[in-house]
Amino acid sequence: MSERKNIAKSSQGKSLGAKTIKHHKRGSIFKRFVLASLTMGGLGQIISLSAIAQLTPAGTPIDNRATGSYVDPNNPGNVINTTSNTVRVTTAPVAGITNTNLAFTDVNGGNVSPNDVLNFDFIVTNTGNFPSTLNLPSTANIATQNFTITGYQADLDNNGTFETIIPLNTAFPTPATIPAGQAINVRVIGTVSPTALVNDPVSVSLGNTGPNDNSPNTQNRPDTNGTGFDPTPPINDDNATNPNDVRTTGNDPVSGLAPVNGQREAAAIRSVPVGSSVQNIALATVLKTRSNYVPNTPVTTDDQITYRLDMRVESASPVPNFTPTSLQGTLISLEGAAQTRVLVSDAIPAGTSFVAGSAIAPPGWTIVYSTSPTTSLPIGAVGVAANWTATPPAPAAITRIGMVFTGNLAPGYTTVPTASGLTFTVVTSGLAPAGGTIANIAQVFGQTLGDPTNRIIYDESGDQFPNNFINGTTPPTPQGSLYGPIPTQGTAPNPATDPTGAANGVANPAVHGTDNNNNNTGTEPAGGVGGTAASGGEDNVITITTATNITNGPNGQAPGVGPTNNTDDFTNLSTPIAAGLNPGATIDPPAVVFPNTFQNTGAGNLDRVGLVPLPPNAANAANPTGRQAGDMPDGTTVRIQVPAVGANPAQDVTYTYNAGVYTQTAGAPVVLNGIAPNQTVNYTVTVDLPAGTQQSSDRFIALGSNTNAGDRSGYSVPIVAFADNNNNGFDNDPISNTTIDRVYTGYMNLLKESRILQGTGPAVGGANGTFSTANKVAAQGNIIEYRLSYTNFSTPATAGSSGNGTLNASNFVVNDDGTVAPNNWSGLTTHNFGTTATLGTLQFFNGAAPIVGGDPASGIAVTRYQNTVGTVVPAPNPATPSGTFTFRRTAN
């Protein structure tokens, strides 16, 4: 089957002769080939080009960083400053190359079979910033499996015709330089081995750049000593003139200088199994989150959990052998009759029951219920699978809830932007008195539109990957879905075809793994298909604990509820940060005082109430973000002060943290007696971090700026209030509750990135054209686009939480001044029209004088940019910036 019709044309072409290479303008045919590559190659084939090497002093560095200031509205006198990283752009010639498999064509169509003639196409791109000659290996040095090469062609002018016939067993340097940003296409023609068996790989490796796996590590690598791997016999990438390399050659023809990062090489491999063809497939993803949790009374049997389900049909494939297409319905039993529907199904979690009237569906979908046992399958024929109905049964009888869609859903469809998705609530009516965990997983079912085999498409929630792909890149079966087909109306899918054991949609966290962050970012446990772990989704799990007779929380909010439950409610506060403090610099911050409150929520007096600090990873506090003992620096002191309460005198105790343990170093432990029912007690916690403490923004960056980084960027001090009934002076008594006092040393991160646009200068290639913090190169006339992303990474309030002390950043202002060291961009570049900001207002200055009239025209002197943002709330997901500010400068 042809992946691209114009590639399936005749392989005839002209011999080399005196070839004239045509170079089309950037964005024309080359752009179409890139788009074709991305579309047909899928997500797994999109290459992130490697950052260019460290630049040498030969060029002129242009440095840029930004500064910002803001205040904590709860402490407006506390001015907090922040400084971005510095990005550098240097003018110098840089070589670059990528090599990507573009397509393969089975000339006679159909499945790949022995003796078939196949065309393997590759696109080789000069991603450097100067014209370069590209060198291709001879066919004798192209590694293959079960494939004999009979032809070798190139399309040097990007017009879709392979006009250049390359002699077999002859290395091929391009007869003219390839401009920066332009590409050539290479075709390897041959026949499948007559002895190849079904599922044997048929592969071609163009180039040899270890690890030869189409990862970024195979792209734009130094053409120097190293070790690669190809099928037997091994071919090692052991010198700069290796005959099996695809590499750049030559110096910058303009300056005569060699590229500062040396010559580069890249490799691509394409493999298709015998018996395969490019397959149209619907790629469905189901998403599940807990949108609210209400603990209700102290007993564990009346807590309410609200879930939201969404689904989408992907428009890009994770693997190249699949082409995304529409999702249509599959066979279900609806109202006792066989019906064809797209179904999103969710088994009511064990220990809970459905809350009547709580279900809401997105537009176009119908809510359905089932009372069939959860041992049945959600889909299949009447009398075999679960029966669904649109009439709500008695809540206690409902075993599954779902929503159905009649018709086809095209690639790109999603319910995520809708107001509700499928929302429903359950009550923990069957939970044990001691509490426990509630686990849940959702499923989506359908079929690929036009699939003659009727193979069922299904996915389980907990991650971002369609069709239960294993960690996003590996299909669960070669057909792209674990379920088999329903060949006739009387046949149900066989659970044996689903190695997860979750064909019925019942959660099993020990096997499935869990979505720890409640945001569909779970990952596949070790093992996968055929291993010891399941291949599928990850369970959404919440732990319900028995209510204690103490609640302990932020100031005046003793019953506070955190992101997980009432053991991780929190108060966030920040130290000041001085202006001009560089990223990476450590500080000796002043002490921070937290006001907290605990309350006796029981029916009788509480005696021997204690308050102690715990390590960040203490079991007493919910820890979905993976806080570790090492998150708190040694030498930190925590002082707990309680005023006189009734007959209890004022109390004052200090603990010092070292090697994961708090040791009492001053005063006496807190002991409070006679705390009456409903009585609240206010106390303070003073946290003093030691000299050498990291800035929180540096911790945020070091943690990868991910969904957990916001919590762990702060310095968390769980404080447990407990009734010391066994008089052991420790917090292992059943009557206890924890709140978290979290110190940030600043909580706004500034990330400065740059990219190069062509402008009136030479074409831009490789990583130069992509926003990143990496060093870039630019020539005269290139446009340097600077982007500043800012993020309030402090822990936010989440759905279902209450009473927490969050940190807004008020009066947030960003400045980028090209005249203040280390910035020097003002004198080396010129303003280019196109300044943007997602929030707030923009101001422009030439020296101290403001420039009126908005974004000045290109060429106007601008030496400083200012973005007055206002208030920035904590980011719901700190991996996503709160806002951006972008401006452009033309290299002089």
UniProtKB/TrEMBL annotation:
Task: Quote any Pfam family the record assigns.
Answer: DUF7925
Record field: transmembrane: 33-55
Keywords for this protein = Membrane, Transmembrane, Transmembrane helix
> Which InterPro entries has this protein been placed in?
DUF7925
Residue ranges, annotated region (Disordered): 1-21, 202-257
Q: Which residues form the DUF7925 domain?
A: 283-469
**Which stretches does UniProt call biased (Polar residues)?**
205-227, 238-252
Task: Give the protein name, as stated in the record.
Answer: DUF7925 domain-containing protein
